[in-house]
Specification:
mainly alpha; flat
Length: 67
């Protein structure tokens, strides 16, 4: 791939692309994944999964504030 077309994406960003691609191909999975703190503490990631209607389970840091 030409260097000019390369994009840096974080693991959560890559995962969201893969989820969208799987759904576009007709995947009918019932739940997504269990993830560690890297994923669970990334609010934008978990919010995006919720917006996509996905069911998931994540670990979070013990000091993460939730509501």
């Amino acid at each position: 791939m030409p260097e000019a077309e390369r994009l840096h994406r974080t693991k959560p960003e890559l995962f969201l692309v893969m989820v969208a691609a799987a759904r576009a191909r007709g995947s009918t999975h019932r739940w997504m994944m269990g993830g560690d703190e890297v994923y669970g503490n990334t609010h934008a990631f978990t919010a995006a999964l919720e917006d996509m209607g996905e069911v998931f389970l994540m670990d979070v840091a013990r000091n993460l504030k939730v509501w």
